[in-house]
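WARN no homologs supplied; continuing
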Amino acid sequence: MTDATINTDAQAPEAQFGDYVALLKPRVMVLVVFTAIIGLFAAPVSLHPVEAFAAILFIALGGGASGALNMWWDADIDAVMKRTSKRPIPSGRVTPQEALAFGLGLSGISVVMLGLATNWAAAGLLAFTIFFYVVIYTMWLKRWTPQNIVIGGAAGAFPPMIGWAAATGSVSVESVLMFALIFMWTPPHFWALALFMRSDYDDAGVPMLTVTHGRRATRVHILVYTLLLAALSLGLAATSIGGPVYLAAALVLNALFVRDAIRIWRRDEDASEADNFKVEKAFFKLSLLYLFLLFGAIGADTALGLGGLW
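OK structure emitted
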């Protein structure tokens, strides 16, 4: 990491409350919170509403702490990527030192308070998640290997396991399958983003698959991972957290997801970038809907008492 490209002008605006909120990556936090809620809700043990609220709050803070530490370390590459150049650190509104202190403080608070509010198994998982995202993914994998998002995707897959552990104090097959669902979803989701944001990763020197192996190889990888994801997500319907709502959602969503992955795979590399970007952006947006609706279906089956009817 280097501060060389960060705006440190003395006239830079002072940090506002919203700048510290931005450090938490609130858009990513929505996914963290939602999947953690489903993991907690689907668990066979119920928490008191106050305990459940505390668990989700501290899981969210832990996810936000990871985001702040990620922005601290990646400030140099954020400054040269169009998508991230206006973040609080490269824009000079928050200093790297402030972001580091903020992230470390929230990390400690979130882990300790989750342990006190629920149990130390959940707190241990949260601590490992923060470590994995910041050290294993951000500091090591992201700038080293084109498989960065494949391995590093595990960090974003832990929240439902943490939610489940907060309720049960343990890890189970069901929570591992929820983890696996996000883990397999992450590569095609981010590779689609990389396809229409490739110049950003080129400029920043991040070895995304699009940069190291090209667009054609990336399209093939998206299709392969989408097919594997479809098989996994349909298999989850046969577990104790699956049910008729989940099965119906999985059938429809996987049909759409595989269809669009095939469209990406068939893209003509000589076609205009505008045409390619349209397909890739559509796939990226569908991927967000895909994950939210699948986890929502798990929650619906649980609420209706239909889970595990198979």
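Residues 273-303 form the longest helix (31 residues).
OK
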